[in-house]
Design goal:
Elements (H helix, E strand, L loop, with lengths): L1 E6 L8 E5 L5 E4 L10 H9 L10 E3 L5 H4 L2 H6 L5 E5 H32 L17 H5 L2 E4 L5 E4 L2 E7 L7 E9 L2 E9 L20 E5 L14 H14 L3 E5 L5 H15 L7 E4 L1 H11 L7 H6 L12 E4 L2 H7 L6 E5 L8 H9 L6 E4 L8 H7 L3 E4 L2 E4 L3 E4 L9 H8 L8 E5 L3 H13 L5 E2 L6 E3 L2
Parallel strand pairs: 3-4, 4-5, 5-6, 10-11, 11-20, 12-15, 12-16, 13-14, 13-15, 16-19, 20-21
Antiparallel strand pairs: 1-2, 1-22, 2-3, 7-8, 8-9, 9-10, 17-18
Helix pairs in contact: 4-8
């Protein structure tokens, strides 16, 4: 039995790991897009090629719907995969809207690239690009999805059972445990996927997995602990009052459409219910976030105790007076002309694409504006650069001076920090034969490995992309 790492290896995005059983049956864990900024051609090439034959994969197990975990599934199907895609009920619901949104982005990116090629190479041979996949590929992809509840074993092969446990990361997210029979022996393989944080709003706390022989573990925040605990409403309210009441400016919150946006809206809803939220207009400027919020409302099985109790007070935790959801592109553009104080929540969270990039350009040089960063950003993205404290930022080909206030609240992070990850995987320490670190920057992973070894974990590996390990 072998495991091969085809993505999220010494980098954060592109989650994709392939397990091959002794009888040749192949199980894929996730199939995500590589994402980044400033190296588009390299990212394109990584997303275009496979380290395996897609038609040789027998089934796919999807941990959750974030695009860096699910975004290449339509291409996998397009290129020959014909097996079942297993996930939780909520993940299936979110994947339907997220993959369609991703397809539209693939189409737009290909069109933009081809227009540039036409301008540059009028007399030379054109290198036109096809999208990785298109909207027409989403229907056939979704037909292969089959969903399962948490905490119930199901078979994907006569010798393989799978268990989903709640990872507490986003709606429907799961850690994956494989129980594999090899003759008279049974091997347990665990895939943490993205581990959430305890005590976050909306979702239940991460649920521990059964002890495993081999564990594939994320490491996004492997080198640090978050400075503040989740649900820091008082700090968030203080930033709102400073930005919108005292400075009378705009508060721009770049946030991922799924998970982060709903968490922010829920916190604002509770402030409104308590009567402590300043009376200022709030805009959720993201069609995908609006669709995702509808999905959140349809899956109360994922809610934690606090949200279920709050529903007795407020039947709609994602809507209140002064909150406006914006779909229309012209309405989005009109926000940049408004002078009055307001809050704008818009995607993407790393500020490398989407409507928020336009809001950033229109507000970054205004000292009255505030940009609140509420989660991880890849170092090369605009969000990553702002986290580092740069004085100027290049957007849409032009350089802008950073005169707006930049605030950071990592309490909104949906990823467990170093201590929380160690606590999550401690259950495997005695049984585990090998621990593989994935989904993290390489320097972060090396720091995390050093910490893990000091905590008594043995045989910690940091696989590079394309590496294959024998698990027998």
């Amino acid at each position: 039995m072998q495991v091969k790492f085809n993505g999220a290896a010494r980098t954060v995005t592109g989650s994709c790991h392939l397990i091959t059983l002794d009888d040749g049956f192949r199980i894929m864990l996730d199939c995500g897009l590589f994402q980044g900024e400033g190296k588009r051609e390299e990212i394109w090439k990584m997303n275009s090629k496979w380290f395996f034959d897609p038609s040789s994969v027998d089934c796919l197990i999807l941990s959750h719907s974030h695009i860096d975990h699910s975004g290449r599934i339509p291409k996998l199907v397009k290129d020959g995969f014909d097996g079942n895609i297993h996930c939780t009920h909520a993940t299936r619901s979110l994947a339907a809207i997220m993959l369609l949104d991703s397809a539209k982005i693939q189409e737009a990116d290909a069109m933009y690239h081809n227009k540039k090629q036409v301008k540059k190479r009028k007399k030379k041979k054109l290198k036109l690009r096809e999208p990785l996949y298109e909207s027409i590929h989403i229907g056939p992809t979704m037909e292969k999805f089959t969903s399962h509840p948490y905490n119930r074993w199901f078979h994907v092969h006569r010798n393989v059972q799978v268990l989903f446990t709640d990872a507490g990361h986003i709606l429907g997210s799961a850690s994956v445990t494989l129980k594999i029979k090899q003759g008279k022996k049974t091997r347990m393989i665990g895939f943490t996927a993205d581990i959430g944080r305890p005590n976050r709003p909306i979702l239940r706390d991460p649920q521990l997995m059964p002890p495993c022989d081999y564990v594939i573990c994320e490491s996004t925040y492997g080198d640090k602990n978050h400075e503040s605990k989740p649900e820091q409403s008082s700090q968030f309210l203080k930033i709102i009052k400073e930005a919108c009441v005292k400075k009378k400016g705009k508060l721009i919150i770049p946030a991922f459409s799924v998970g982060r946006t709903q968490e922010i809206v829920y916190m604002l809803d509770k402030m409104h219910t308590k009567g402590v939220l300043p009376k200022i207009p709030i805009y959720v400027d993201s069609p995908l976030a609006i669709n995702a919020t509808t999905v959140f409302g349809a899956h109360p099985e994922c809610y934690d105790k606090n949200l279920n109790e709050y529903l007795l007070i407020d039947e709609n935790p994602f809507g209140f007076n002064d909150l406006n959801y914006i779909r229309d592109a012209n309405e989005s553009k009109a926000l940049n002309g408004r002078k009055e104080p307001c809050i704008i929540i818009s995607a993407s969270g790393m500020m490398n694409a989407g409507r928020v990039k336009h809001h950033l350009r229109n507000n970054i040089e205004n000292p009255k504006s505030t940009i609140l960063i509420v989660g991880y950003c890849s170092p090369e993205t605009p969000g990553g650069k702002l986290r580092k404290g740069v004085g100027a930022l290049k957007l849409f080909g032009e350089v802008y001076q950073v005169r707006a206030d930049v605030k950071i609240m990592d309490s909104f992070s949906a990823h467990a920090d170093q201590s929380e990850m160690i606590e999550f995987i401690n259950v495997h320490k005695k049984k585990m034969k090998k621990l593989f670190l994935v989904h993290g920057e390489y320097d972060t992973q090396k720091a995390f490995k050093y910490k893990l070894v000091g905590e008594g974990f043995k045989k910690v590996e940091i696989p590079d992309i394309g590496f294959e390990y024998d698990l027998t």
